[in-house]
Amino acid sequence: MRLHLIIWGTLLAFGIPLLLTPLVKKLAVAAGAIDLPGQRKVHQHPVPCWGGLGIFLGFAAALVAAVLMAVLPLTREVIGLLAGGLVVLVVGMLDDWKGISPLAKLAGQIAAAAVAVSFGIRMHFVTNPFGGIIALRYPLSVILTIAWLVAITNALNLVDGLDGLAAGIAAISAGIVSYVSFSQGVPLVGVCSLFLGASALGFLPHNWHPARIFMKDAGAMFLGFTLASLAAIGLTKSAAVFSLILPILILGIPISDMLLAIIRRLMRGQNILTADREHIHHRLLDLGLTHSQTVLSIYGVNLLLGGSAVLLTFLNAGQGLIVLFMLCAVVLFLANRAGLLSRQRLPSPGPADSRARQAGTHK
Q1: Which helix (H) or strand (E) is 1 found in, with range?
Q2: Are 198 and 223 in contact (CB under 8 A)?
Q3: Helix, strand, or coil here: 279?
Q4: Is the distance from CB of 39 to CB of 49 less than 8 angstroms?
Q5: Range of 315's domain?
């Protein structure tokens, strides 16, 4: 592949959201796509939404340019990435603008996943760490792929609760996916992941605390959907012994937050869809960390999990299982210390307390 063209594409993916997000902000204000302060929100002033549009434009422009310059082939999977990503972006923008029901949003996410699957983005097989290949036949491959895409789409959306958090997690995860994909001989996924990470980074300066614009559902869902799609295209099919585990580790923060929320609510006998303010970032803020400390701490854990995924590509089955066991033990210990598995519901903070400890939280 022509390295200089990949670099130019990466700069394009970074530059478009960096330069166009102020225009997107004006568009959101003109359309009325504004996130207003409310009882469950602690930002004190209206903040425009639709930041995800700038991220999408950066990624799409870089991808189209790469195809036109013959850096990437125009495969059905590339078309599926853009088509499915566009569907989930529109669903998110509608929700950020007018608000749609959770059921309608879920239907839109499933529709986006179905579009991606129809263009060949599918888990056809995974490598068995104990030897051999596990074939995923139709319709199981379709069902599992759609479930994976929808789950990660929502998982990243759940962690979009602090300024800069989701964009940074997406950028780190995309960078690690890119590295692993290139090392495992899947350059298409490597280049696409590089473009996705660059577009998230280009948006980050506008979203850093105090954020001037939110990515909201449009951006978080698009980033989660595209990361999940890239993992389905490449990582689960790689020659690595733990190929099935790699995307789970790389996306470990949003996946852990989602699973811990489900476990926590089941332990309390609650509906798993019940909203609360006990996600990872909330708990870290409650422990006394500042906004920046919380975000940077989660970035650090994200890098640790991603680094573990890279390490697994060099280990045999026995060594990898030891590393996974140790990681699980550490994650459960830290989750318990942070109170993420507590049976007791945290009391809702008062307005003054919220402003002091959670400035920047917007979900």
Answers
A1: none
A2: no
A3: coil
A4: no
A5: 3-358
Lowest-confidence pick of 6-15, 33-42, 113-122, 324-333: 33-42
Within-domain flag for 118: yes
DSSP E strands: which ranges in 13-146? Answer: 34-35, 47-48, 125-127, 133-135
Region of residue 81 (phi > 0: left; psi between -120 and 50: alpha; otherwise: beta): alpha
* Two structure tokens written together for 254: 């949003």
Residue 363 is assigned to a structural domain of this protein: no
Which of 157, 154, 149, 176 shows the shortest CA–CA distance to 299?
A: 176
Distance between CA atoms of 313 and 159, rounded to whole angstroms?
27
Instruction: With beta carbons less than 8 A apart as the criterion, state whether 46 and 216 touch.
Output: no
Tens-place pLDDT, residues 211-264: 999 999 999 999 999 999 999 888 765 545 456 678 888 888 888 888 877 887
Separate counts of helices (H) and strands (E) for the chain:
14, 4
With beta carbons less than 8 A apart as the criterion, state whether 204 and 164 touch. Answer: yes
Quote the tokens at residue 243: 């190929």
Q: Does 45 map to a domain?
A: yes
> Can you tell me the distance from the alpha carbon of 96 to that of 49, in angstroms, rounded to the nearest whole number?
7
DSSP state string for 26-90? HHHHHHT-EE---TT----S-EE--HHHHHHHHHHHHHHHHHHTTSS---HHHHHHHHHHHHHHH
For every residue of 209-233, DSSP letters joined together read SSPSS--HHHHHHHHHHHHHHHHHH
Considering the entire predicted model, what is its pTM? Answer: 0.89
Is residue 336 included in any domain, yes or no?
yes
The backbone torsions φ and ψ at residue 289, rounded to the nearest 5 degrees and listed phi first, read -75, 150
| Residue 182: both structure tokens together | 């290139």
Q: Are 161 and 275 in contact (CB under 8 A)?
A: no
Q: Which residues contact 352 (CB under 8 A, 6 or more apart)?
A: none
Quickly tell me which residue has 């994650």 as its tokens. 331
The Cβ-side half-sphere exposure at 116, using a 13 Å CA radius, reads 36
Domain count, the chain: 1
Which strand (E) or helix (H) includes residue 89?
helix 76-97
| Measured distance CA(18)–CA(199) in Å, rounded | 8
What are the E-state strand segments in the chain? 34-35, 47-48, 125-127, 133-135
